[in-house]
């Protein structure tokens, strides 16, 4: 019997309502792994929202951010409680696998991403040029 689990089996996906509850009522931080452009158009509205893109848009299409883990470690530790989200819930799965594989202990993937967040009427912030 193979007891080694694949990274995908380690992922715990929570819905946006559970994510909102954890962000409001516990010490979880929200890690938005969308591009900076997507983040500025609108993001989950909490005081301590982090934006570290997992992918970049290039003329040739999306490419993986080679410094993703290093950039995350500049703004948080492996002991931080994180909820990882993207636009629709695809990039956040990849980012969550990367974080768990790197030794982060408490990471949730937010299913449905920012689109589901908006559809549920949860708080949204927009970055304006003046901020």
TrEMBL record:
What is the recorded name of this protein?
Answer: Rhodanese domain-containing protein
User: Which top-rank group of organisms is this from?
Assistant: Eukaryota
Q: Which Gene3D superfamilies does its entry note?
A: Rhodanese-like domain (3.40.250.10)
- Pfam families in the cross-refs: Rhodanese
Which InterPro entries does this UniProt record tie to the protein?
A: Rhodanese-like_dom (IPR001763), Rhodanese-like_dom_sf (IPR036873), STR17/STR18/HARC1-like (IPR044684)
Q: Name one GO molecular function term.
A: catalytic activity
| Record SUPFAM superfamilies | Rhodanese/Cell cycle control phosphatase
Q: Where is the Rhodanese domain?
A: 24-126
Species lineage: Eukaryota, Viridiplantae, Streptophyta, Embryophyta, Tracheophyta
């Amino acid at each position: 019997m193979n007891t080694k689990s694949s990274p995908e089996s380690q992922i715990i996906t929570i819905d946006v309502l559970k994510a909102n509850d954890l962000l409001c009522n516990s010490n979880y931080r929200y890690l938005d792994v969308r591009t900076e452009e997507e983040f500025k158009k609108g993001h989950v509205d909490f005081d301590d929202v982090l934006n570290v893109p997992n992918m970049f848009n290039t003329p040739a299409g999306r490419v993986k951010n080679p410094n993703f883990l290093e950039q995350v470690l500049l703004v948080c530790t492996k002991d931080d409680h994180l909820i990882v989200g993207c636009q629709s819930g695809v990039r956040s799965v990849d980012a969550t696998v990367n974080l768990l594989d790197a030794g982060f202990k408490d990471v949730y993937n937010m299913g449905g991403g920012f689109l589901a967040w908006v559809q549920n009427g949860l708080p949204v912030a927009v970055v304006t040029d003046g901020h």
